[in-house]
User: Fold these one by one.
Assistant:
Number 1:
Amino acid sequence: MSDTPHIMVVEARFHEDIVEELARGAVAELERNGATCLRVPVPGCLEIPAAIAFAVRSMDFFTARKRFDGYVALGCVIRGETTQYDMVCTESARGLQTLAMRYALAIGNGILTVENREQAWGRAATGGRNKGGFAARACLDMIELKRQFRLYPR
């Protein structure tokens, strides 16, 4: 196992500008900590858990090992006029938690659930709350915890 974590950053591109800012924060945090990453776009937040599940079930052809040490989920759900908001928030979070528990995955959840774009930008901005960076840090912390328990990620 390499000491350099390799992370899959899954980006729901529905609110592309906000998610791009989240990704900037996440990638900067990963690079600052010596990790490498692969950015994978998906259409929306509901597709994030499926993308992670696909990666978990895939193996590197040459090494027969898992491809990623951890996962960072990035997206943004802004409340609208329908109940779609509640369903997307609940099901994307449930999907990530189910994956983390079932497969002992290190997942940093950076899916914003907000009332409006102003709140989203306040949380996404790398000069603000930097939730993308926070999600990446959470992922790295969980990888370290797995190592302490000898649950090697790959």
Number 2:
Amino acid sequence: MSIYTGNYTFWYESSQLALKQRSDQNKKLEEKVKELQEFIQRFSANASKSKQATSRKKALDKIDISEIKASSRKYPAILFNNLGREAGDQILQVEGLSKTLNGEVLFKDVNFMVNKGDKIAILSQNSLATTAFYNILTDRDKDYKGEFKFGVTISTADIPNDNSEYFEGKDENLVDWLREYSGTDADEQFVRSFLGRMLFSGDEVLKNVKVLSGGEKMRCMFSRMMLQLANLLMFDEPTNHLDLESITALNNGMKDFKGTILFTSRDHALTETVATRIIELTPKGSIDRMMTYDDYINSEDVAKLRAEMYS
């Protein structure tokens, strides 16, 4: 057993490095064994070389090639890069977007243009504001002021904060549930492949969606998102109900994605490693900065502006 001091990201990166070092070491040992075996085979019957062959035989007996055991941890394959259509230069334009809920201004006069390939962390001190923002962009909420427009080449997929609408009243297995979102008359094997990426295998794909846990529902939602082949992804607190392995896989999938992302997450490491731009929604407008999350929260200029926006 190896004990690591640090957070989960540190453990994951350290364990991967240790595995690579071990693999490299065993590769060198295997090459050494092969070299010794070839020498012994060639010269063991040669009187002038027999002493050297015997010496190498003893060296060979001392080499212990460790078997690299696969980790018992299972990482899902959250892969978004199989884009259905290449996005054009017009991604998303937001103008004067405002939302009030029960008399409370969640955000007001939000204006920005999304650039191709942006990975934008959407922030707010009020989580209702960020959820309302995604609900507007996904047409779940029609009660707002202002407007937004996606480019004609843009296809979207999202992970909402509340996914109950996708499972309530459903009485079907996972394959039939996911087939509804395939957009084609997909065969069972095709649909199973997307469930398999999220570690649903064998008879598990025949489980009724009515009995799924919160974590299993989230994995189904990721299967759905991957199946949609969208070029703009939106995530509202996507790490809810996920285990550490799934969070790591999601983090890597978001970093590797070649399209555009809007996301909100309370996972600091994910936000810091994915976001290339920060947009914060406030009751007095928005703050828009091309910087990492750590740079944003540590900026004195941003801190002063935030204090004004929320006062």
